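User: Can you recover a sequence for this backbone? Please restate the input before giving your answer.

Assistant: Of course. Working from this structure:
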């Protein structure tokens, strides 16, 4: 097994599972241990008389355990992976026991049937008339909400923003709730983001004004939706919280099959809704691509996507004036560690020139993928920055511990990084020196 500790930790559903899994990284806890080319197995002795049986499909990074936990992977799966990564000599190569081999064969048979069912579903034509009626009804509701929000924005500017620091969160939450009722959850999120900017410290007023302008642009776009070009309509739908349904997307979406390097991942949570934003770069398609997944309650996504690995799969691209988002057409069936550097621009100017083109095409973009080689982390007073080969420096959004780790990885020498650029600062998600390094992705 070639996964490292960072890649395994990235699979965990929460911090508690990581901590519990670490407590099982002891050979004495595992009376049975073994591995083969495509799987890992073990029996973990718990408090009961019968040990838990744990199996891992190494090609798909899927875990199975007989314990009653509903977390995925559970602590036993994480413990087995961590033990194999950190103390590989204890996990001997051999033939899997019947219970492990049976699970792997059954799992792959189910995966093949599911893939066949997806293929069959793609061949069923979408009822265009039903979709058009459904979309017209929702657009009407959203437009009514947009009109209300536009009036609210005008009132805020007319009365001034001086008293906003005294407003309670409920002031913005009530407006956001109305947007949810109007079937525009994206507008609700933008309003909540507006409220969060007020107590954000120095420069809050400039950030608030920028967000007010963004909201105005969204409501203006909504009011003129039918007159916008189709790619711009698609981008606007995304930010309104009205993306295409899978059955609408798949029949006509452009597709690419490639060996995709998973170079970055960000988890965010609001009101128990987890969002997983995963960035990939293809071996042939060298532009960053984003996968966006949601899960309620726990960070327990059914398809594991480990940073620092490479997966062979097909992606279907969402429409847009500057397409960035894609959808997995089927779960990856082969996963291997990333053995080479990911593609990157030569300097910051090249990345920002691409971002300028993207922003001109899609004015609602918030974060943009940022891959650059030849950069060096530097410390300026209490701030951390990245310097490129031209001597240009950009501010880093990074905690001190990770900044020192980044500096240690570089050794003061130029390295290759991947991250997200917000327009004001850069968040590093991974780096490449002689190997791949990932950074914590939960704010």
């Amino acid at each position: 097994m070639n996964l490292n500790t960072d890649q395994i930790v990235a699979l965990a559903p929460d911090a508690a599972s990581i901590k519990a899994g670490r407590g099982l990284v002891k050979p004495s806890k595992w009376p049975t241990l073994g591995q083969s080319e495509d799987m890992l197995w073990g029996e973990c002795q718990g408090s009961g008389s019968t040990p838990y049986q744990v199996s891992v499909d190494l090609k798909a990074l899927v875990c199975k355990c007989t314990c009653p936990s509903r977390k995925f992977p559970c602590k036993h799966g994480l413990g087995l992976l961590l033990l194999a990564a950190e103390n590989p000599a204890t996990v001997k190569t051999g033939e899997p026991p019947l219970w492990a081999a049976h699970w792997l064969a059954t799992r792959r048979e189910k995966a093949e049937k599911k893939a066949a069912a997806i293929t069959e579903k793609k061949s069923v034509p979408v009822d265009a008339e039903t979709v058009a009626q459904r979309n017209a009804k929702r657009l009407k509701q959203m437009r009514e909400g947009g009109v209300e929000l536009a009036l609210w924005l005008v009132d805020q500017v007319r009365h001034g923003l001086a008293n906003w620091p005294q407003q309670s969160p409920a002031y913005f939450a009530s407006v956001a709730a109305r947007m949810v009722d109007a079937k525009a959850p994206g507008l609700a999120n933008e309003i909540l983001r507006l409220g969060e900017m007020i107590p954000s410290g120095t420069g809050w007023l400039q950030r608030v004004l920028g967000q007010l302008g963004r909201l105005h642009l969204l409501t203006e776009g909504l009011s003129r939706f039918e007159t916008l070009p189709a790619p711009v309509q698609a981008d606007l739908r995304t930010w309104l919280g009205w993306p295409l349904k899978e059955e609408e997307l798949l029949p006509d979406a452009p597709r690419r099959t490639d060996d995709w390097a998973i170079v970055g991942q960000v988890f965010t949570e609001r009101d128990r809704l987890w969002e997983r934003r995963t960035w990939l770069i293809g071996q042939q398609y060298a532009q960053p691509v984003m996968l966006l997944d949601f899960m309620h309650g726990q960070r327990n996504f059914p398809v594991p996507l480990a940073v620092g690995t490479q997966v062979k799969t097909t992606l279907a691209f969402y429409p847009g004036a500057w397409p960035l988002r894609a959808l997995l057409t089927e779960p990856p069936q082969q996963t291997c560690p990333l053995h080479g550097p990911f593609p990157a621009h030569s300097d910051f100017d090249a990345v920002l020139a691409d971002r300028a083109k993207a922003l001109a095409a899609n004015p609602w973009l918030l974060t943009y993928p940022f891959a650059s080689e030849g950069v060096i982390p530097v410390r300026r007073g209490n701030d951390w920055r990245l310097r490129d080969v031209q001597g240009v420096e950009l501010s880093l959004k990074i905690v001190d511990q990770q900044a020192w780790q980044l500096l240690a990885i570089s050794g003061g020498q130029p390295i290759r990084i991947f991250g997200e650029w917000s327009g004001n600062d850069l968040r590093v998600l991974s780096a490449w020196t002689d190997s791949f390094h990932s950074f914590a992705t939960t704010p």
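That completes the design. The first strand starts at residue 32 and ends at 35.
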